[in-house]
Design the sequence.
């Protein structure tokens, strides 16, 4: 009897050990799940904070975008050579095209998204006050970073070829332009940068030109015209969303044989690369296709291509579909 009881006890003791091991395993699993849940919560918190940043930027940029788009323009400020009617007046169609090209040039100056937009002089013969402000701010920022580089001429700052860059390097140039835009916008209470904390501003590539940083410490990107990006705000259909800046269809592409190139409404794209820290949305690395005259390359919203040959703004979901974008999930 005693022997059996001992065996039973022994068996129970072994079973208890097994139970303990199971409990330990369960606790370890639960602890692991908790760590994962906390990491997920942190990630979701980062996403929500970054969305909030993009919402703030979007509101400021879109407000100014609408103001510039409705600004009255004189056609005499366009660089286009007009034909005259027999009575000596400018033909209406050409006047409308001239106004459209002047408006696009104004948008380039007001909303630069690459160094060349700030460096290259206007085709209008005048320079917008915003562009002047961007140039002054660029000079101050670069000079603060490199106080020994005095005097600082434009070639030092922008480089002989602004697509390559000078002291202002092309790394993060889209984000650096966005910072210039925000820092130049003011209302009666002051500068728009007051809506961003010091921890949201940085200089990741160390060239003196600041960027607004997302919650993963990476620069928030900006594309003035992203003809490759389809979204709720930008459906890329000339039927439902024709270019609102061209109500008279002055753009010659309305009148050629193809409907595929008809000009659609485009809106500034503001986005974070998301948790993987890398933008999957194609930026303006290269201008590939030659343009039909009279479209000046730098002003044409529909001509830009990425270095891969896709229209600017095309997103590569297979690589980085986690980007946070003002057009879609930020309302
Ligand atoms: Ca840079
Ligand atoms: Ca920088
Ligand atoms: Ca067409
Ligand atoms: Ca990404």
Sequence:
């Amino acid at each position: 009897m005693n022997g059996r009881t001992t065996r039973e006890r022994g068996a129970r003791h072994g079973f208890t050990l097994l139970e303990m091991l199971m409990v330990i395993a369960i606790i370890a699993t639960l602890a692991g799940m908790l760590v994962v849940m906390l990491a997920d919560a942190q990630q979701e918190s980062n996403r929500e904070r970054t969305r909030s940043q993009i919402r703030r930027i979007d509101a400021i940029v879109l407000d100014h975008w609408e103001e510039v788009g409705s600004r009255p323009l004189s056609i005499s400020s366009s660089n286009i050579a007009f034909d005259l009617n027999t009575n000596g007046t400018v033909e209406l169609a050409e006047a409308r095209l001239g106004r459209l090209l002047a408006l696009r040039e104004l948008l380039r100056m007001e909303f630069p998204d690459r160094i060349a937009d700030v460096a290259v002089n206007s085709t209008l013969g005048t320079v917008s006050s915003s562009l002047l402000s961007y140039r002054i701010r660029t000079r101050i920022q670069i000079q603060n970073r490199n106080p020994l580089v005095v005097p600082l001429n434009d070639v030092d700052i922008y480089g002989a070829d602004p697509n390559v860059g000078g002291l202002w390097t092309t790394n993060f140039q889209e984000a650096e332009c966005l910072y210039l835009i925000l820092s130049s916008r003011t209302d009666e209470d002051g500068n728009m940068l007051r809506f961003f904390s010091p921890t949201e501003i940085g200089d990741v590539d160390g060239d003196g030109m600041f960027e607004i940083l997302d919650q993963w410490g990476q620069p928030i990107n900006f594309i003035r015209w992203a003809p490759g990006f389809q979204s709720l705000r930008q459906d890329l259909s000339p039927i439902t969303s024709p270019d609102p800046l061209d109500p008279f269809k002055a753009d010659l592409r309305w009148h050629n044989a193809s409907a595929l190139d008809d000009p659609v409404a485009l809106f500034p794209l503001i986005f974070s690369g998301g948790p993987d820290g890398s933008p999957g949305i194609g930026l303006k690395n290269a201008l590939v296709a030659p343009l039909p005259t009279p479209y000046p390359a730098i002003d044409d919203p529909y001509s830009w291509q990425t270095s891969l040959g896709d229209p600017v703004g095309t997103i590569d979901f297979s690589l980085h579909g986690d980007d946070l974008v003002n057009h879609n999930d930020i309302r």
In short: The chain has one domain: 2-325.
